Structure formats: structure tokens, C-alpha cells
Amino acid sequence: MTASTKTGAAKDTETGAAAAPVPAAPALDADALLDDQDIRIIVCCGSGGVGKTTTAAALGVRAAERGRKVVVLTIDPARRLAQSMGIDSLDNIPRRVPGIDGEGAGELHAMMLDMKRTFDEIVEAHADGERARAILENPFYQSLSAGFAGTQEYMAMEKLGQLRARDEWDLIIVDTPPSRSALDFLDAPKRLGSFLDGKFIKLLMAPAKMGGRAGMKFLNVGMSMMTGTLGKLLGGQFLRDVQTFVAAMDTMFGGFRTRADATYKLLQAPGTAFLVVATPERDALREAAYFVERLAAEEMPLAGLVLNRVHGSDAARLSAERALAAAENLDDIGIVDQTAGKAGLRDPDGSAVTSPEDPESPPSPTRSAHAETPEHEPASEPEPEAVSVEQLTAGLLRLHAERMQVVAREQRTRDRFTALHPEVAVTEVAALPGDVHDLAGLRAIGDRLATGSAPAGAA
Length: 459
Fold this sequence. Notes:
Elements: H1 30-35, E1 41-45, H2 52-65, E2 69-74, H3 80-84, E3 95-96, E4 107-112, H4 115-126, H5 129-136, H6 139-147, H7 151-166, E5 171-175, H8 183-195, H9 198-210, H10 212-222, H11 227-230, H12 235-249, H13 253-268, E6 272-278, H14 282-297, E7 302-310, H15 320-334, E8 336-337, E9 343-344, H16 389-420, E10 426-430, H17 439-451
Parallel strand pairs: 1-5, 1-6, 2-4, 2-5, 6-7, 7-10
Antiparallel strand pairs: 3-4, 8-9
Helix pairs in contact: 2-17, 4-5, 4-7, 5-12, 7-8, 7-13, 8-13, 9-10, 9-12, 14-16, 15-16
């Protein structure tokens, strides 16, 4: 049972006081999700820096080793997915990942979205050779395909639609683009579809038919929303590029709207499952809560929340308050630094005694700071001061107190999310000591995803 499924009056790990009861959150069964043959698409979403790419890759490895044929689509520019899977590089073509083990194991493929190349593929698929070449070489198109706001998110959805249409994989796992807002990914198909629909094409065609200065003026009105992105193209050449582009693309734009609508419906279909990924931090869980609400409003199927990098302690019974009190008690005993660099205890009468580790050792004489060092005797480094057991113990108690304060803060943050969304299934992934950089690390994350492993001692 994970921390997210516990009920009743929990104990505050920072103060030791009884906390208010928190609602139960159902446990997310990741293996059941991966084994469900009706689930064909899993979308990992959430704010930036919460581990979406690692989660998507770990799910892909686990699903493949449980017998499914999987492709993981990432939009992560850091290329960490390729490195962790032992591939030199990823591109717009799915690459098979070696090293997938286990009896009855399936296959794992991985790819990284190339936004412009995906746009080019759409042109090549929906235009004959001569027209496609004219479009691809057009400066207006090159600016649009490389820099229009929302293009990356839309092209991720286009690529998802292409992969699903090929029916080559029985599970597609999508690592969503790093966006400033959780809305970007969901809005992209509608936004770019609206931009590229037939009505807008008619607006662009009008100035070409009118010609002259009046035509340019009308064009400027229609294109005002695009001046930030396309401002590098100026004057008459700009008009000619637009005319050429529109003439070549006129028959294609209706397809963008159709595919955008189809992709949006695909995201709403029962065969799709969204996983919201977050860390137990206030900002990340606030964004996660917002995304949960948005998915519900759009009637998109939410599988649950992956709570990443959760901290805990094997000594959770010792609260932060008690650990700090014990450390202060050790300080009050009177640990002092001796003249000779030794540490000892202070007797009640104020006299210092030698360290208990060496009770019979007399204080060693110290060399005067001004004494000369013989030429044949090299100058020695000053000996580091010895640290007593009591000092070490006090330091460890303070470290433990800091850890328990982190645990308590994360627990309160989780409780606030659960109170708002008690229906959301949760699985917790314990924080690892280092970065994930190979298949073994991804398997370890997959194990934690499947078991819902909270750190030891988490409340």
C-alpha cells in the first residue's frame, strides 16, 4: 500500500502532532494499464522538469518486456531518451531499442519529433511531386513550418496520428512537448486547424486577385496576427511568396482541419489514457491539478497521477522535532574543542576531560607557531581536528531533521492535491540518488511505477 492510499489520522512527521484525516486516493495500477490491450495510446503530460521523458521511457521499457510492441515518441530536445536506451541518436523515424529482455518480451522503438520534417512529410503525402517541391522551397512555408506558435504541439499530434494509422505498434507512448502552459498541448490541434482552414485561405487569396497597393493593404490587415512570426519577409517579395504558397497549398488546408479534428477525437477515445506527471512540490502539483480539471472538461480519459521523486526515511518514527531536541541536548553536554585539536566533554565543574575514545592519552604538546622547522624535516600540514562521537551524532540528527521536514512538506502538498481530487489514482516513485542513464535505471523506475513504491517511512 502506498502513502497515497492510507487513510485516517496521520502523524505529522515534522512536529509529531496528530494531523487531520486525509481522504483516500485510489492506487494507480501501472501494470494493469500497460497490459490492457484496449489501451493503444498513453500520453504523459505535466509541467516542465517533472520527469515526463523518464516516465514515458520507463513505461515503454516495462510494457515491451511484458510482451507489447511499443513505440515511445518524445519531444525532449535534451535527447536523454536516446542515451538512456543505448541509441546514438533519435530522429523522426522509429528506431528499435536493443536489450529488451524477458520471456515473451515484445519490442521497443523510440523516436524524437522533428517538427519541420513532420510538416514536410504532410506536404509530400498530400501534394504531387512538382507542387510539393514548390511548397517546400517557398520562404513563406519555411517560416511557417519552423516557427509558428503551436506548430511543435500540433506536429506532435500529427505524428501521433501517423503512428496510429500505421497500426504497426499496439502501444504508443507520447512524451508531450515542454510547454509554458498545460493548455498548449490540448489546444494545438484546434488552434493550428483554425489558422489553416479554408476561410483563412480565401482571405489570403483575395489580395492576390485584387493586386496593386489595395491588395497589399488588404493583405496586411488579414496577416496582422502573423507579423511577429513572419516579419522577416517584407515588401513585394513577401506578397509573391504568399501568392505562390497559397496557390500551391490551396487544396491541402482543408486536410489540416480534418486531421486536427480526428486527432482530437483520438485523444478522447477510450483507447487513450492520460498520465499526469508531477513532483510533490507546490507549483508542480498546482499545474497537475489544473491539467486534471482541463482533461475532465474536455472529456479526455485520465488514468492517474505519477508522483515523481518522493522523499522518505527509514527512521520516520523519529520526528524532526525530537531529532533537533536530541542534537541540542548533545550540544548542552558541553562538547568543546581542546587545545590539541581533541574533542571532549565538560565536567560539571567546568574542567575539560579528554575524549572518551582515548581517556588515558595526555594532552600532546603543540609546536609554537613561531618555532622553526628543521631543514631536513618537511613542514607538515596541520592535523585536522578530531570529531567526537557526540558531534557526529548531533550532525546526523540535524540532517535527519531536515529530511523529515522535507517529507512533511511533501506530504502536506500531496494531501492538498488529494483533498481537491480524491478520485484521481496515484502512484509514487521514490527519489533516486542519481540520474537515470541506461535501461537498468529505466527498469528501476518502471518497478517503482508498477508497485507504487513510496519511500520507506513516508507517511
